[in-house]
Amino acid sequence: MSSLLWAARGWVRGRWAEAVLLQAGRDGRWERVECGIAAPPEATVLGGAAVPGVVDAHSHAFQRAFAGLAERRDSAHDDFWSWRDRMYGVALRIDPETLRDIATQLYVELLRGGYTQVCEFHYLQHDRDGTPYADPGTLAWALADAATAAGIGLTLLPVLYERAGFTQPALREDQRRFATSVDSVLALQRAAQGFGVPCGVAIHSLRAVRPESIARVAAGAGPGPVHIHVAEQTAEVDDCLAATGARPIEWLARHARLDARWQLVHATHATADEIDAVAASGAGVVLCPTTEANLGDGLPDLPRWLASTTPLSIGSDSQVGRDALDELRLLEFGQRLARRERNVAADPQREPATAARLFERVLAGGGAAAGHAQWGFVEGARADLLVADPSCEATAGVPRDALLDALVFAGATRPWRDVMVAGRWVLREHQHAEAGAIAARFAQAMQTLWPA
Length: 452
What we know:
The chain is α/β, with parallel strands linked by helices and 452 residues long. It has helices at 80-91, 96-112, 138-150, 182-194, 211-220, 234-244, 248-255, 272-281, 289-294, 302-307, 324-339, 354-369, 403-409, 435-449; strands at residues 4-12, 15-24, 30-34, 44-45, 50-51, 54-59, 115-122, 153-160, 201-203, 226-230, 262-266, 284-287, 312-314, 385-388, 416-421, 424-427.
């Protein structure tokens, strides 16, 4: 099939453009992006509007096996921390083959949801009894194999995880599979890069890592992304204040030498001063609306984040949502419920369309979170695209300029007919070539984890 593609409409540099010609090079990157070009006879004509793929900037793949299974209340109090304890029970039962099968199913679902790249925040490291595998990368390679089988791009983020809390000297027994050191994290990063797997590093959280280790791992990580969970829960903020005298984001801004490599995951509870400090540093923020809603985390100060220069991205996190449009919709709808306003994310002076403003911010921010210098329909960026299904009921009869608004806010189901990653079609007419076999292996893995 020709690497020359033509779309009647495409999302180019933050707006709809007409007659878009795209050419993918042999290296899987766009080598030609032009607008207003009549379709040449040798081009493949796309069957719908062309949209860049989205980066899932925060994923815990193994938690796909737990999605939907923590929605009952067994005690007087249920919150993030009780959910976490139940989630650990799943983490303690997964083996490399099970992880591969779960992750492959997840990654196919993410492709269907409009994601073409996933950042895997990888803290499930050791065997079930806590003993390191002979190859410390065993579970990481299961994730890499899953990404290859599904056809999605992967950024691996091995996680530094040292202790159970600010005042705890070590991990809890049910966290035994997560234990790492600065040296082991950097060694896994080097090994992954040696195998051609794009790889940054991650720090689980301020409570889980010693301050001196944060400095060492960030210094040794090189130019790749550095991700960290931060300020997700109010209890975490309170504990950080008690232990350090500063709020979590405040502490990072003062002591961690934040720069454009850093991605602050959640950042739900941030003050105006903290937002300004993050923006000044060049660090990005990863928002995970469906997970944050499911866990009762709270809502971010989205208007202030948007008004700042902070790169923003979205993530599927605990996998209760695996659709990029759902994340954008809930991001906006949460603000509407809290503020009793509409179109909170829009900017009447610069970008009055809510969907356009959100979508363009997460495209740019997601590329940076995954370690890509460029993202979207620009020459040199990876050749990823989504083809909107013209038969999608949510967009039927919608004015041309309102297509993105309808995709995000009109409840589109199966909106993407075709999906390309690095110049290769991975979904055609909604179908993945290996979907049946992948789903069967996932069902068997779930049966192993959750016997009747």
